[in-house]
Hints:
Low-confidence stretches: 1-11
Strand order of the largest sheet: 1-2-3-4-5-6-7-8
Number of helices: 11
Strand content: 15-25%
Largest sheet: 8 strands, parallel, barrel
Shape: globular
Amino acid sequence: MNRLDVDERPGVSVGLEHLSLREEPLSVFVEAAAAGGAETVCLSVAHPGVHDRRVLRETLSQLDALNLSVAMGDGFLLAPEEGLDGLRRKLDVLAELGAPLANTCAFEPDAGLRRGPGHIEDLLGEFCQVARTAQVDVLIEFTPLSHVPSLAAAVELVERLDQPNLRILVDTLHLARAGEGPDDVRNVDRRLFGYCQLSDGPRVSESLSAYLDEAVNERAIPGDGEFPLGEVLSFLPRGITVSAEVPLRGLKQAGISPKERARRILDGSRRLVARAWM
């Protein structure tokens, strides 16, 4: 059985994404995640701390002491300048983190460029094959800011590539901003889903630039916004890893500590997941 056959995975994992506390040192993030009751964390393979040998050793030791695992490595950018060699190097970093999942994204900063999965299809397929030899499963994250702009586009891409270790990451913010929702999730084969990044927010965004700022700096704690998160979760496989990605710039500027921000994020996430699944 492939590790991503998540319907057969027991229990519910509620983790914390590093973007939630991205301005904090890794040690502060890990400590806050553990204090908030996270079961897993996500780290970026592009983060400077991960490439500092001393910081990496200390982080791995801290994770072990706090009984936290790295569920996923973020930061695998599908771009010509990155290429397969760049993705291979990041895969080596992922191996040191001990993470079983590599999250890819085809972010495209040029808003005037026509977007489409065809721009990155070959590179993603090649990376899946390389990752498979390393016993790593691959996620594709869709967002209107990328060449895979929607869940529908991600489904078409995954089905076309037909790689056994490739699944879809659902970020609930990107799902909403793509104009999609629970019905779109319900109509997808559950076996195609491999991970969920959970956050909340207003039902619509004012502009693309406002959405970008929201994604990086200020999301709502799950349960505090207008997204139909309970319905979305109800159509995802039970046991899929759910990890909160909720940067809270306003609370940081108000002097709220990283531990308290993590606690609020994780408490809200657990309540919402419990209502949806239990």
